[in-house]
User: Fold this.
Amino acid sequence: MNILITGGAGFIGSNIVDRYIKEGHQAIIADNLITGKVKNINAKAKFYKIDIRDREGLESIFKENKIDIISHHAAQMDVRKSVDDPIYDADVNILGSLNLLQLAVKHKIKKFIFASTGGAVYGEQDYFPADEKHPPNPLSPYGISKLALEKYLYFYKMTYNLNHTILRYANVYGPRQDPHGEAGVVAIFAKKILKGEPPIINGDGGQTRDYTFVEDVVEANVLVIKNGINGIYNIGTGIETSVNELCNIMLKTAGADAKPVHGPAKMGEQRRSVISCNKINSECDWTPKNSIKDGISKTINFFKDEQREG
Assistant:
């Protein structure tokens, strides 16, 4: 298959690209390199430096390549930035994505895979863990823009019969992560701990998240294609981990003596977030294979290697 991966030089996207290539697919990357990195780009992939808001530029990619599947991971992904500048967030995440959807219809794409968000779409949860039927109550423009795209995908399916799979990610962490967005706490802590600095915890540290290792997210993206499933699926562990617990695991894994420092709480931060993966488990036998301890160990080792390389 020829797969166009938007955001394919970024944290999650580049890990997916590597695996698609390993599976024998042709990977075509579209990334503006605002947050993506050249060093993340697989040498066997075809790369276009382009912003998804550039409709004409995107069109040229479709003309030069017979695209079978779009894996849409390009996004303005910083929750706090979306609060500060909701217009920019909507410009990238809604209007940019609509460029892709229009081209998907025009060029008769077989499938559109969309990287959505679990925590930000559900907002403050009514029950734990949230399944796909949980009411969406996004508390940020970022969550709103992701939900809007889900609604547009429904429209494109009903109107143009565009098959799609929506993957609502929990807080993804792992190698190549940058300290952006909420899940970036793992990268932030890792870099501080390895420098011998104390990690800073916002508030009391009792806030919980569903930390999901990037290798497991990649596996879900592979199974979606292999099994041909369509619809909305949560990709998470169903396990809540507090920031305090996360910090302790990371300090212990790194063998660090530093003690965390508590800073002021962030305004409007969600208290608890955890999602159920029962639906994708029952439909294509996906389950997260990496425990938080295993995933953190792999992540710490990655950042250690990166530190050594300078």
